[in-house]
Structures are given as C-alpha cells and as structure tokens.
Amino acid sequence: MSTSTTDLTHGHDDDAVKVPLLERIPGRGSAAAWPLGLAGVLILVGGTFLSWSYTSDVLGDLSVDFYPNGVQICMIALGVAALLFLLAHRGPLHRFGEWLDTAAAVRVLGLGAVAYMVITLGIIAYQSGGLVNINPGGWISLLGALLLAASGLMLVSRQHRDPLFAKTSSWLEISTIVVLMALVLFGAAYALDIGDGGSFLLFLLFVSAVALALTRAGAFTWVGLIAQKNRPVLMLGAFAVAFLFPFTQGGSDENMSIATQVLIFAATALGLNIVVGLAGLLDLGYIAFLGAGAYVGAVLSASAFATIDWKPPFIVVVLVGALFSAMLGLIIGSPTLRVSGDYLAIVTLAFGEIFRFTMGNLDGSNGPDITNGPNGIPAIPDLAIGSFDFGQPHTIAGITLGRFANYYFLLLLIAAIIILVFTRLNNSRIGRGWVAIREDEKAAEAMGVNVFGLKLFAFAGGAFLAGMAGTVKAHHDVSVTPDQYIFLESAFLLAAIVLGGMGTVAGVIVGATILKLLPEKLRFIADYRLLIFGLVLVLMMRFRPEGLIASHRRKLEFHEDDEELAQRIEAVHLEETEVKA
Amino acid sequence: MTLTDTPPARVPTAVGKPILEARGVTMRFGGLTAVKDVDMTVNEGEIVGLIGPNGAGKTTFFNCLTGLYKPTEGQVTLSGDVLPPKPRAVVVAGMARTFQNIRLFANMTALENVMVGRYCRTSSMALTSILRGPKFRREEEATRARAQELLDFVGLGGSTESLARNMPYGDQRRLEIARALATDPKLILLDEPTAGMNPQETKQASDLIFRIRDSGLAVVVIEHDMRFIFNLCDRVLCLVRGEVLVEGTPGEVQSDPRVIEAYIGGGDDDDEDEGPATTKETL
Amino acid sequence: MTDFLQQIVNGLTIGSLYALIAVGYTVVYGIVQLINFAHGEVFMIGAFGALATWTVLFKGQTGLWVLPVMVLGAVLVSVLTAVVMERIAYRPLRGAPRLAPLITAIGISVFLQEAVRLFYPGAKSKLVFPEIDVVTGTALSIGGLSIQRAAVFTVGALVLSAALLWYFVNRTRLGQGMQAVSQDPDTAQLMGINVNRIIVIAFAVGAALAALAGVAQGLLNSNIDFRMGFLAGLKAFTAAVLGGIGNIQGAVVGGLTLGIAESMATQFIPGQFGGSAWKDVWAFVLLILVLVFRPQGLLGARVVDRA
Which residues of A touch B130 (CB under 8 A)? Predict the structure, then answer.
C-alpha cells in the first residue's frame, strides 16, 4: 500500500490534473495515513458529544454535553461514512477497496468536514460575539476533521477494478436502493424541519460532501448501473417515498405547503423538460401555459369572481385547461417551429408577454371581461372530487393530513403522469426522432423523420401537461393573477432543468427541489435569489451544461470533443444493455 | 444509350423499367447556374455512376433529386410519380441517400441510428407509445430486428451498441448506408461512399454496393475514384460545369476524349481520396 | 390627418429607439448567429450609466454640455458590460450546442437586471432621469403637431449613428473584416482576420448604440427602471427580425416600421382592442406574422446557412 504502483487506472477527467499536485503532498503514501484517519474519525465524533457553543441560541442548541443536536449528528454521520471508507481501504471491508477509490472518498469527506466545522464555528463566533464562545467540543471536532482531511490527502488509492463491472447479488442491489430511498425520505423530512438558515446550509454542505465522496469513490457508477437494472423497484420506491412523505409531517401544514409548491414546480419543470430536454426546443414562455391552465381552472371554478357560468366537474376542467393550453401551443408553435430554432426562444418569450398583457387587459374596459384584469380571480374554492373535500383535513391511520397534503397527493398523481409520459416517450420511436433532430436536423429530415411534426408535438404536448398542472394550481393558490406568470418564472423553471439535468427525471426533481427549497429555508438570500439563479444558469452552461444528474446523451452532446468521455459512456451503455438483458 | 458493349461481368442481373427519371433539372443560385438541364434515368436493378471534376455540380444535382434544393426548372419522378422538393416526402416515396461528409447522429448508437431510419416506415404515435400496448411492443420489436438485420447486412453486426462517434471512419460510412437502407428505399443515392477509404475498404464498399443491387435496389453513386466507379457501374454520367458531358457504359465514358480532357492531369488511378484536390488544378 | 401625422411622429420616435437597440442584435447575430438575449439589459445599463455619470459629476446641473459626457459615461458602461459578457460567458461556448449560449444569455439577462436592482442605490423603484436644457422640456409645436424635444434627440441620434455605422462597415478595414467574418468565419480566419477581435467589436458597437438608446429613453420618459431592458429588448429583436436579421439597414427599417405600426395600432384599431393597453400585444403579433409570411424579413436576412 505504501508503494505507488497500486495507484492507477482512473479515467476520471480531473484526476489527470490533480494527481501531480497530490503526489507532492508530504507523507503521501506513508503508513501513518490510515491510523491518522481513524484517529481523525474518533476525535471528530468524540467532539460532537461535547458542547460546541457557550451560548445555547446558535444553530439550535449546541451547548449541551453528551446530547448532540442535528448539526452535530451530521458530523457523526460523516464520521461513520469516513470510517466505512477507511475500513474498506484497509481492514475488515478491504474487499471493497479494490473497487472503490477509498482515498478520494476519505479526502472529500475530510475536506468537507473541515469546511463544515469552520463554517459552524464561524457562525457560533459571529452570532454569539467572539471565538471565546466556542467550547472545547467544537475545537476537538475541528481537529478531528483536519486529521481526517490530512489522512485523505496522504492515502493512496488501492482501486484497480472498475465498479462498472462489479457483479453483485440482487438482494444487495435492492437493499441498497431501499436504504438510499429511506435516506432520501428521512433527509427530505429532516431538511424541511430545519428552522434556521445556518443549520440548513450546513445540512446541505453535509449532503453535498457525502454525495461528492460517493461520486469520487465511484460508488455512483455502480448505483447507476443497478438503478438501470432494477428500474421498476426504483420507480416504485421513489413513489413510495413521495407518497409516504406527508405521513412524516404529523399534520404540519407549513412544511406540506412548501412540499406542494415544490411539487407544482417540479411537475411543471418536468413538462418543460420534455420540450427542452427531449425535443431540444427552448421554450421561454412555458409559464404562460401553466397560467392558461390556471385561468381556465379559475374561470370555470365556483369562485364568486369567475366570469363564465359553466361549472363542469373538475376532471372536465382539467381536460379543458390542458386542451386550451395545447391549442395555444399549436398557435404559437406552428409558425415558429418552421423557422430557425433560435426564433422559437424569442417568440415564446413574446408569447409569454402577450399572455400576461392579455390577461391583464381582459377586464371589461380594455376588452371583454374574462379575467378581471390585474386583480385576477380571487377566492377560488378548494377542490372537491366526489365527497372528498380538499380543504378539510382527513385522518388516515391516525395521522392527520391537512389541506396541503390533500393537494400534495393530487399533484403527485399529476407528476406521476408527466413522468410516465416523459420516460415512455423518451424511449420510443418519437423519442428517437427527437434525439435525431437534436443531433442533426437536416439529416433527420433526409432520413424521413417528421421534424416539424415532432417539434410541434413536443411543444403542444408540453403545453398540454402544463395546462393540466395549472388547473390544480389555481385551486391550490386560491387566486390567479397575471403577475404570477411573469417571464422570470419561466427562467426559474429553466434554471431547475439546467441545474438538475436536461432530459432526466431525477435531475429535474433535484433541481426543482433545490431551487424552491433554498429560498424558503435561506430567508437571508431571498432578495438575491434571482441574482443567484441568473448566475447559476451562466455557470452551469460554462462548467457543467449537462446538469447535476446528467443524461448520457446530453453529456455527450455538450462535450463533443471529449473522446475519453465517449468511450467511457459507451462502456457504461454496453454494461447496462448487458445487465438488462 | 446502349448497354450492348458492356462486358458480361457487368451485365446487371435484371435491368427493369425506369425507376428514377430526372428531366431538364436546372439549379440556379442567383446568377450562377450550378446544374443545367440535366437528364438522368435510372432503371430498376441498375448501378449508375455520376462523375465529374470538383465543382461540376454533382452534389447539387443530388440535392435537387432528394428534395434538399428545389430545382429552378425540371422535374424528378420516382416510379412515375413526381417528387415534391421535400426531403421527407422523397424518403417516403422510396429514395434514400447518404452524405458526402458523414452526417450520422453521432451520439446515438449504431442500432439507434438505423432505427431512426425506420421512422417513416413505422407509425406508433404518442398515445400508443405512452400506453405501451401490444401494437407498440410488436412494432418496436420489429424495428429493432430489422435494424439489427441491416447492421448485419452491412457488416456491422458486432458494433450494434457502439456510439456512432466512436466508430472507425469506414464503419461510419457503412452505418450511414444501413441507415438509408432502413427507410426501405427503391433507390439509394450514395455521395462519395469511398471518400477517405483505403483500397481494402474501397473493395468492401463495392462488394456492399453489389449486394445492395442484388437485393433489388437501384443505386446511384457519386465518386471521384474513377477505377472504383468503372468497375462498379452499369452506366456512367460525366457532369462538367453543371451539364452532362457524356453518358454511356464505363467503357465508353472511360475512352471518351472529352472526359479525359476534363480530368487532365488528374490521374484516375491513384486519387483515392485526393480526387478533388487533383481535379481542382485542372479547372 | 393631424392624428395620422402625430402618430407618424410618435412612431418614428419610438421606432428610432427600437432601431438603435436592434442594430446590436443584428450585428452580433450576423457574425456569431447568437441571439444576445441580454442586449436589452445592455441598453438598460446604458441608461443607468448615464444617470450615474450625471449623479456623480454634475448633480443639479442642466446645461446641454453635460449631455455628451453622460452619453460617454453610458457608452463606457454598456460597452464594458457587453465586452465582459462576451469574453467570460459567450466565448467559451462557441461550438457548443445552440441551447447553451441561449440559456447563458437568459442567465446574464436575469443577473444584470438583478444586479442593478440590488446594487444601484435606489434602483428598486423607478429613478428620475435628469432634465437637460434644449433636449427636454416643453414640446415643440410644428403645424399642429406636438414633438417632444427628446424625440428630436432620439431621431437625430439614430441618423448620426446610422451614418457612422455605414461608414464604419463599408469604408474601414475593421468594418470590412466584420463583413468577411459574417460571410465565412473560417475563411476569414485563414485570411488573417482576428475573428475574436471582430466579435468583440460587434458586441461593442451594438452596446454603444444601445447606450445611446438608453440615454434617449431616459430623456423621453424622464425616468428609468431596472426592468426597462426586457420589453425594449424584445421589441428591438422583433424589429431586427422584421427588417431581416443580420442586416444592418434592415434593423433600422425594421425599428422604424415597428414603431410606426405600434403607434398606428394605438390610434386606429377601433374598439376595445385598440388603445395603448394592447400595443405591445400587437407588436408581438406582428413578430409572429412576419415569421409566418416573411421569415427573412423586409430587407432579407443576411445569414449564411452554415449547416
């Protein structure tokens, strides 16, 4: 282990640059690295059982000995993760060390822990007036984190096999999926419960550090493969998690309100992802289609301000809203989709504005009275499907589910429909046609692909789905006004896709969650959120255009010159085809 | 136009009735006439070559045939039906093409590329695709099977799941042919199928073209490599400055002094992939 | 008749504004086939640059001599913004799929708007633009027509810039280099033209005209707002498409046409759908109609298909 001959074989893109730097670290490869890491974990975790702060009002309460709170428990969890990787490096789990880049994982975890501790101690010092208010426990954990980081930097990877080719039993795979799902559920519930911005930020840092460590170790290569192999289990698991989520909230409407907002946003973004991610069309007026659905939902509702006297059952309203949106999509799409793709972006943008102006003008004085103009349509009653009133709390298995939980389940159903449409279309004749169009429009046309028809279908189909979600949104929001559907909302949706990953379902859900949750939880950045989103769009396009959770194809498209990446993705694809067969 | 002089080896298995007829095709870009009054007939089961120095308008003529350009004058009929100048309609009517500079869907696998070629011969629409009914499954299965069959036919049966962009150059050319064949054409147009190939690959290409012909298709080939084209074709058209200079059997065209003049200085033996460069000097 | 002429005057005024901004879209599109969506914000930043120059250097003064310095300040800020964004955001994306620069452009646009809103003192609400002697104040009255003084400035700015631009593009080496790059960047590069430099210049030229438009807008409306770039940018793009994108004369013609069409719609569309509440809607409807019936624009797009 102390020789560097075992250090080899990773095709990771940035390691090529980093290795020389790492090589120069004093003590690299020395036998002391591993015990140092163990000691680091012990000290890090040990410190969490002691008080970190003198005052009790910072980041929850960090002042009690032998009673770690959430912020400290994150460090315990991180310590445990680091311990597992260390034991895989050398010790009882060493079998795994051949498959995983344990050194990189320990390195990331160590550095993450240092960052975490520095920020935590910084917040304590800042909020309680000075470094004196940091108790020994905090310093001890920081020391542990530093030792862990040092160990990680000194360790040399033993990995010499590609986790892509790991043959694993299906019980291990399925239990891994179950454990991951449970962690996601638990993590989401926990994150929503965090009250203060500081703790939330730290939790985010902790999650990112662990995720990055697993990525660097190569664990996600394997997870991705088993996810492909056990797709039905995964989908079922994901929906089970999403379905169970309200039951973890003990009837708290506050968190469920955020959760439903995330879900509306995610469902809409998923619809947009069909247009942008699959068909490759940049639709900058997508929010208007959501708005069109919402207005249909509003004017056909039982609101005293509704202007149309037809009150059909809700399922009809949903269909009318969706079809109305789709029709608008056809009207806008059919002229523009024939000309260059760039025009579409601007025309959809203009359409978004037309929509907003029109909704603001149809107030009786500038046009027929349909929308009540800028005041919108307020007092939209809660949905009632059959005898189920969405406004009333219901009790299931002793757990009370409030108004938002009711909407949550309905939205979950809509999201499920959109996901189904998304994945099935993606994996069909139509999906192949879209890819071909994205790749080379002229060649696609010359090979008999109906380029215009497929584009129009994506565009109008996306509008249809948004209209569907809009009708529910109207009832959820209680009122519909033009200023809910401004361009920035479209940009916001686009940001979710770009951040999460064009053309992937998981990516968009992650992106939507991050973008909605962050401003909710980090009130101090609320005013800067659009500034940050703008920046996110620019930086993502520059550095990771395929998004956090990338689809293989998109990754290839955005890295046309990267031969190594293409080879790697082909290898992954071959392996996936094999395990699925 | 006589075929009587053709050596027996080149006699097509069965020369049937005309399948493609181009009449008086003229293409002007502003003041420039790139193609002028070109007539071409291709019969069933025939391999027709289109030669000519660089800039003679071969590819422009191809683009007129396949609907990429709308000819200024003239018309093109396939099996008696006038072709509209729309690439997709042309494919649906039964004429497919390859491109001079390979235009594969680089980030799709070989199989997927060929499956895209099946697009216009399959019909699963949105609802079927979403609901995954038996019809969808059957059609998807058939598409896959046909694509695999075509990959085997062009000799790429082993590279089914390779990304197109990772494939060697020669394989990419063959993949493009498989993709075009997937549209079930009656006639296939190959734009410089051997550009950039070594002699062995060129040999394989001409074998492949013979096999395509033997499967009942008519073939039109644009090529610079004279030796390749004279060994391959039943009939050759030589295009110079947008006009048909000579039309006839390879033997006739080869010995025609005007053709030799048009190609002067350009060795017709050794210009595997630098045909354009050598002919350019003569223009 | 007076109504008609009055609307022509109004249309020419607003049209000149659109034309000044539209040139920026068209020049950049002609050269790199990029819809620089953030160009509207460059216009907005120009207006704020002028205001900042005035606030810092001349607060309280109204002399006409202040105006050139304000314009200079506006141009400097706008050009700097445009050049920096080209360098750090767009240049690395050349050769990337078309979606990437478009998304970047939206990101920049949102970022710039928010940056001004958050960091320019008082910009969260409308800011008063200074009154300048001669170019603001009581409207001129000629033969029953009322002509805003700032309108004269706006139209004059357009005429002057159009003349300078024509000279630059057709009579200078750089301008000819620009034409060469827009025809065929690869060959231009081979011929020794520094393509990167030409692209930066295209951005800078567009930004300078947008800055001028920003000042004009401030004088016309006597207040400015961090949101003003969005709609103006969209209108200017419409103008560029209307005239034929990539075509500089087209941008001018398109801008004026759009301005007049808008004014006429306000005046002459009868009933509830006329009036200023709908004029933006009609402008965009015009954009869609142009794309349906004449996608190459009035004077023809000058974009080479490089597929």
Answer: 420-421, 424-425
Euclidean distance between CA atoms A278 and B126, whole angstroms = 14
CATH second-level architecture of B1-94+185-283?
3-Layer(aba) Sandwich (3.40)
**In 3D, which of C172, C259, C177, C170 has the Cα closest to residue C213?**
C259
- Tell me, yes or no, if A274 comes closer than 8 A to chain B by beta carbon: no
ipTM of predicted assembly, 2 dp? 0.89
- Is there a contact between A440 and C98 (Cβ–Cβ < 8 Å)? no
Residue C119: inside a domain: yes
Q: Is the pLDDT of residue A404 over 90?
A: no
How does A2-39 read in b/e, with b if 16+ C-beta sit within 10 Å? eeeeebeebeeeeeeeeeeebeeeeebbeeebbebbbb
Q: Does B163 touch chain A (CB under 8 A)?
A: yes
* pLDDT, mean over chain C: 88
Domain coverage including residue C139? 10-234
- What pTM was computed for the model? 0.85
Is-contact A455 A437, C-beta < 8 A?
yes
Spatial separation of the C-alpha atoms in residues B238 and B49, rounded to whole Å: 8
Residue recorded with tokens 């800067």: A528
**Average of per-residue pLDDT values in chain A:** 86
Domain ranges of chain A: 4-229, 254-486
Q: Which of A289, A281, A338, A265 is nearest to A502 (CA)?
A: A281
Q: Give the one of C101, C106, C118 whose C-beta lies nearest to A494's C-beta.
A: C106
Parallel, antiparallel, or unpaired: how do β-strands B187-191 and A388-389 relate?
unpaired
pLDDT for C17-41, tens place per residue?
A: 999 999 999 999 888 888 898 999 9
* pLDDT surpassing 90 at residue C302: no
Spatial separation of the C-alpha atoms in residues A43 and A36, rounded to whole Å: 10
Q: Report residue A528 as tokens.
A: 């800067």
How far is Cα A172 from Cα B102, in angstroms, rounded to an integer?
45
DSSP of A35-88:
HHHHHHHHHHHHHHTS--BSSSSSSS----TT---HHHHHHHHHHHHHHHHHHH
Cβ–Cβ of A442/C307 closer than 8 Å?
A: yes
- Which residues share a beta bridge with B239? B244
As beta bridge partners, residue A351 has none
Interface subset of C 84-103, CB within 8 angstroms of A: 89, 92-93, 95-103
Torsion over CA of A333, A335, A341 and A343, rounded to 10 degrees? -100
Beta bridge partners of A384: A389
Residue B103 sits at the vertex; the CA angle it makes with B101 and B105, to the nearest 5 degrees, is 155
Beta carbons within 10 angstroms of residue A220's beta carbon: 15
The answer to whether the beta carbons of residues B179 and B104 sit under 8 Å apart is yes
How many Cα neighbours within 13 Å face the side chain of A43? Answer: 23
**B24–chain A nearest CA distance, Å:** 23
For chain B, the domains span: 1-94+185-283, 102-182
Res B271 pLDDT > 90? no
Determine the 3-state secondary structure of A565 from DSSP. Answer: helix
User: How far is CA B251 from each of CA A294, B5, B7, B247, B264, rounded to the nearest angstrom?
Assistant: 74, 8, 9, 11, 18
What is the arithmetic mean of pLDDT over C80-105? Answer: 90
In chain B, the N- to C-terminal Cα span, in Å, equals 28
Contacts of A569 (CB under 8 A, 6+ apart): A552, A555, A556, B163
Q: Which residue, B165, B161, B114, B180, is CA-closest to B142?
A: B114
**H or E stretch including C214?**
helix C195-221
Q: Are A432 and B116 within 8 A, CB to CB? A: yes
Coil vs helix vs strand at C281: helix
| Three-state DSSP class for residue C146 | strand
